[in-house]
Every structure is written in structure tokens, then in C-alpha cells.
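hey can u check if this looks right to u? its 201 residues, i copy pasted from the old doc so theres a chance i mangled smth
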Amino acid sequence: MPTAILAPSVAATDDTPLHRFSVELYDRMIRDGTFTDEDKIELLEGVVYDQMPHNAPHDHAISQLQLALILLFQGAMVVRTQSSVTFPNSVPEPDIAVLPGPAERYARVRPSAADLLVVVEVADTTLARDRGLKQRVYARSKVPVYWIVNLADRQVEVYTNPRGGRTPAYRTRTDFRPGQSVPVVVGKKTVGSVVVSELLP
């Protein structure tokens, strides 16, 4: 049986002064070449963060999950990897995002929070950020389902029931371990499942 856990509220604790960027300024700096494709960064809660480099287990998990979801949806949904989405004060790049089609609707504009059905982050060295900062970002914008493929603890954490407001978080967390399958829920409907062990090295 999967383990159900009440997800704790996560709040920022670092009081270090920061320069905050709007999404508009961030996009303008991309357009004018201040930030380029070589800059592995993302905007989270108005702050530009470096993205951690990927290792082989991280890339394996993304590849396996992308393939499993593409086979599951059979073209009914768009499955994007490491592509940016636009939130009010963030431009995250989730490892995987499941979106309604067709794919052409995102050819000239990023998906918004309202488009996201499921987001996934693969975590090894980034686990604290994915459970904290990333969870806040996704919960604040009411992304309905958030997965963390937790390579360190060899489990998939599924967060649901987002709460916005001053302390955004997901109210419910359910863990799935090797030997179990993770249900893929889209719009409150379970459309299939993914075997946990197939995502882990």
C-alpha cells in the first residue's frame, strides 16, 4: 500500500536581501541576450536560481517517465520535458509537464499555470528545493498534481490538494516505492499508472 502523509506547510526562512525580477523583466533579459541558452537558470518567486547539473540517474528517470506517459496518453495529452512555464512571479522549468493538446497551442507562448495538469521534478541533489521552494511555486498557482521522483530515497512522492495564500503548500502527500505503481490522475480521473521501479536506476 502507498504511504499517505499530510504534507507540511513550507515557508521561506532566509532573510538575505535579494533583487527580485518580474516575469516581464526576466523575459526581456532573455530577449536582449543578457540570459542565453547557456545560462541554466529559472525564475522562482521573483529570484533567478541556477539549475543543478544533471547526472545519469536523473536523466534516466526523466527519459523513462516521458516514455511511459507518452505511451499512456497516446497523443491525448502533451508531455513536455524541461520546458518553461509562466506563473505570475515565476518561470519554472519542470522536468516533466503534462498539458492539454494540441502541442501547437504552445508554439509561440509558454503554457501558464492553468494549463498544467501534472508537473514532475526529478530530485537527487535538489530534493530540498523541490520539496520547499518548488512545492510553494506549484501550490500557489494551484497546479493540481505534483510529483517528486525522489532518487535518494527511491520513491515517488505525489502531492495533491494545493493550498494558495500566504503559506502555499500541498495538503496531501502519498509516497510510492519499488514494487508499487503510481496512479496517473488527470482532472480527478485515473487514466493509468507508472511502475516506480522503472523510473529508478
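Residues 56-73 form the longest helix (18 residues).
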